[in-house]
Amino acid sequence: MKRLAIIFIFAILLSGIASATISPVGGAVSGSCALSGPTATCTLSASPPPGDYMVVFLKTGGASTPYCQDNNVHTLIQGPAVILLTGDALTSFGIVSYSGLTSVTCYWLGGTVNSMAAEWYSGASGFNLQMTGGSALGTSTAPSISPTLDDANDYAVCAFADTSTAFTTPYTGTLRQTTSTGATMVIVDNTSASTGAITVSATLASSVAWKAACVELRTVAPTAQFTEVQFTPVGFIATAGPPTCLYSSATCTWQIQPTVAGTLLAVVFSDHLDGSAPQRTITTIYDCATSPCTSGNTIDTFTLPGATCQAYVVDSNSGSQSVDCAYVLSGAGGANYITATRSGNTSIERQGYAVAEVSCSCTFVLDAIGTATVSTAANTFNITSVSITHTNDVIMQGLAGGVAPSIITAPYYQGESVPNHQGFWLALNTNNGAAPTITTSNGLNGAAGNALAFSATGGTPSTSKISPGVKITPGVKVTP
Fold it and tell me: Does any domain span residue 433?
């Protein structure tokens, strides 16, 4: 049933369902946010009617990229975000509801000022998670944002957040949700019978710093050659708790969203050790229906490119950084877990993985692989480029660094700064293989990175507005 639900969800994203009107249905606010060790979590209970489009906003006190999944391990697709290196962020997400969705949980690195809220709508034909003008920040008593609607009667669903002051009337648009669990945040939406810029605004009693992010709900179904099915990362932590790899073991098993037949599976691996150590690589990797995965119950045979996808460096603080990758060009479907084993002993190492599953009505081919290293300290750096040869690609990017990376520039959107020292990101429908700019909150001592690009037989440009998001830093706005 889960597999059928996934196919249904992403069939909606690709083709849409004919409808006359987008209508707000309901919403929810999280009452469960916690910080345990290095990892913070927030859980929101929500059961939208199947087929409704749910927009989720997360306000966090950390400068890392959060990752969210539902109670059935389905990935929420990231949208516009505002991430401040001072330790303050507002991130948006989208998911199409289905029978069995009851809650959403988000994970991120650190931070204590956290809140989460959602609103869902009927009648939409698609998300635009790279909405033009979809993020903003400022300091004033009148926070305002003016994103662009692609179609008549689309909705701009926006959140405003600050750290200390309550939002109040008047609003431009309709107030849907209010939360003050650790941080003040409101969801406000607006719609127009015309395309173009639309204003959404709120009011503050005093002038304070604020952030805003918006997601567009479309009346016209977007199109794409490549569509994200899932992006599921797993990072290190000292004790059990999803999604995590125990750092005392060289083998890691993590649950993934059930895979769909014919999709691309791309995995990147990252490892950090405080101290000089030999290079770490993936030695075996299997997927399976029931855990743990072994050579005897594996569903797919992963390709391990070896040295072409491996990078290693000892950074300026004597930390050892390693990356590697694996992939399946056409999965058999039905996998619920991945088990991977790295080289080296079982000493305390910060290891992490991420798997991206992408669908396409095509035959996937490997386009190119790139690796790079940086050995000097920096707050902002460019690391891994990949020399793509097709006009439209899927690119998976991995990083092992001296500290957690916070922000990456477009076209990369879906990703996570996994606690701690790892970064994983995905780009879809792009012809940009240049090295992205990565920014950290407290300086990077050095890093190893890799990037693997996939295309399709006869790949063509795409006009997708399903997945990529916009992320900004103070004074710098990055758009796809």
Answer: yes
pLDDT (tens digit per residue) in 8-58? 333 333 333 444 599 999 999 986 677 765 667 889 999 999 999 999 999
Nearest to 345 by CA among 249, 270, 260, 272: 249
470, part of any domain: no
Shared domain for 168 and 202, answered yes or no, is yes
> Are 198 and 78 in a shared domain?
yes
Residues of the chain with pLDDT > 90, as a percent, come to: 47
Q: What is the reported pLDDT for 3?
A: 39
- The stretch 60-89 carries a mean pLDDT of 81
Instruction: Say yes or no to pLDDT of 477 above 50.
Output: no
Confidence of residue 358 (pLDDT cuts 50, 70, 90): very high
Contact yes or no for 59/130 (Cβ under 8 A): no
Query: Which amino acid does the sequence have at 287?
Result: D
Coil, helix or strand at residue 306? helix
Spatial contact of 91 and 57, defined as CB atoms under 8 Å apart: yes
360: helix, coil or strand? Answer: coil
Give the residue from 185, 218, 251 where a domain finishes: 218
CA 87 to chain CA centroid, nearest Å = 18
Residue 475 lies in a domain: no
**Torsion over CA: 168, 45, 338, 468 (sign):** negative
- Same domain, residue pair 182 and 236: no
pLDDT at 480: 24
Same-domain status, 202 and 322: no
Give bridge partners of residue 347 from the DSSP assignment: none
Distance, in Å, from the CA atom of 28 to the CA atom of 35, rounded to the nearest integer, reads 21
Distance from first CA to last CA of the chain, Å, rounded? 36
Calpha distance 373→312 (Å, rounded): 7
Alpha carbon 259 to chain centroid distance? 18
Residues 208 and 232 in one domain: no
Q: Are 248 and 395 in the same domain?
A: yes
What is the domain extent for residue 162?
2-218
Strands 115-122 and 378-382: unpaired
Considering the domain architecture, whether residues 158 and 259 belong to the same structural domain is answered as: no
Smallest Cα–Cα separation from 258: which of 437, 50, 61, 69? 69
CA distance linking residue 413 with residue 390, whole number of Å: 20
Q: Considering its fold, how many domains does the chain have in total?
A: 2
| 156 is a domain residue | yes
Gap between the Cα atoms of 281 and 237, Å rounded: 19
- Other CB atoms within 10 Å distance of the CB of residue 17: 14
Task: Give burial (CB, 10 Å; 0-12/13-18/19+) of 334.
Answer: middle
Residues 204 and 251 in one domain: no
C-alpha neighbours within 13 Å on the C-beta side of residue 132? 8
- DSSP code for 146: -
